Amino acid sequence: MLRTLRSRLRLVLPATAALALVTACAPSAGGGGSGSGGGANTLVIGMTASDIPLLDTGLSQNQGYEGIRFVGNQLYDGLTKFDLQQGDEIPKVIPDLATDWQVDAAGTTWTFHLREGVTFHDGTPWNADAAIFNFDRTINKSSPDFYPELNAQAGLSVAGIVSATKVDDMTVAIATDGPLSYLPSNLTTVFFGSPTAIKEGGNEAFGQKPVGTGPFVFESYERGQQLALTANKDYWAGKPKVDKVVLRPIPDPTARVAALRAGQVNWIEVPPPDDISQLEGDGYQVLTNSYDHSWPWVFDVSKAPWNDVRVRQAANYAINRQSLIDNVLQGTADPAGQVAPKANAGYDAANDVYSYDPDKARQLLAEAGYAGGFSTTLSYPTSGSGNMLPTPMNEALQADLAAVGIKVELQPVEWASMLTDFFQAQIPGGADAINISLSMQQEGFWNTWFGTNSSSNAGKYSNPAVDALLTQAKGEFDDTARAAIYAQVSKLLSDDAAWLTVVNDRNPRVLAANVHGFIQPKSWFADLTTVSVG
């Protein structure tokens, strides 16, 4: 029988950390933030990250999408963004630093018209020269401004872009290496820094004191401790309602709740599910929503036993997703019966393949020659962006798989280190599979995770039929028709059991009662401009 989540999560904190969390008596749910170093209208967020994400434009991805959510999207803007000010629909791509765009008949040259009247936080004007400088810095290896570290981090978002050129002062043209229908989706995380600040300080100095056009301005940074941002009073879309945002990395979920109750933060990501009902009863706001999120095991299909589709299918039938949701996650996720997340445009309920059927799992294992079972290894992160509660979740899956003869050794890995390996198509420690939170919200990720020639295909999965459909999607500029293609891809991938599909997260977070105005979107990202505290 599963032990309660609370008993699994009670970790012994270092003495200094424990002291920091109990220096004040817990205030009411309406309190919070007294230790934030800001005024009353200050939002203090307890992140799941183990460190502050890097601050230089696309480098915030070093802590996964949580880095983009709380750093990239706050300091910077892209040419495009997702509509995060509503929570009823899957967010559409809308204008940001570009007001509109067109693509030529061949589908390979895009023209973006830039928003006028925008300035960077240091007063540098936003225009085509600033845009081209940033593109050169990211993708143009022949440019003196090229920054290899940025290219490595932001490479997924700029994949397929050949060049960016100036048309006139407020217009740029982007050329791609073939039709790329979802370029506007990919560009949501291509951010722009002030050319003046970058040239004056150099890459390293800019990363310590970043300057963007975004809704919040860099104030201060304490390595490993916190990042403080203040509202951009001159923001082109209007000053944010909150005066200040403070980000604090708190990877342990129990410590996040303690910090919330102590008033040291007034917003936490991923509360321990066992604590949710008590937090609600005490007046805290608990928010959830479906979003484009997968929490799979990515099999290394290049080696036995995972190179046999019957073994992969057996693993998918062996796990009890609903028990995991009911007993560990307390309803904060949905079962994933296919590769496409429920909040992805490519999701079709008819494509749900897997349910709990351990007898079928044993039958498939026997057919594959593993009637006696086998041993395998799994690399997984202990915390981090979108990873939910990886240790108790993986322990539950480990027990389910053991019941059909699959003995799994769990190998924990630090999140940032895992990301580095994963995006180089490597599974840490030579393990046979990797557990990692993933998304297809930016459509290019379909090809990134599953394309035969992708440089980030850590599972080494290859299927000519999938490759053909992904190529077809690149050339399909109608959103509805393209979603239907992704539904076909999801069916193929699910039938082929490319992943162990487990759950789709519902993105739980807890806010103090005095935090107002946040809209929980169907997205991994978050818009903090509507929030106020008081």
Which structural class do the helices and strands define?
Answer: alpha+beta
Total domain count: 3
Overall pLDDT metric: 92
User: Percent of residues in helical segments?
Assistant: 25-40%
CATH superfamily of the largest domain: Dipeptide-binding Protein, Domain 3
CATH fold category name of the largest domain: Dipeptide-binding Protein, domain 3
Give the tally of β-strands. 21
- Taking pLDDT < 50 over at least 5 consecutive residues as the criterion, the unreliable ranges are 1-27
- What can be said about the biggest beta sheet? 7 strands, mixed
Number of helices: 17
Overall 3D form = globular
Name of the level-1 CATH class of the largest domain: Alpha Beta
Distance from first to last alpha carbon = 44 Å
β-sheet strand percentage? 15-25%
Rg computed from alpha carbons, rounded to a whole number of angstroms? 23 Å
What would CATH call the architecture of the largest domain?
Roll
Strands in their spatial order, largest beta sheet: 8-9-10-1-11-19-12
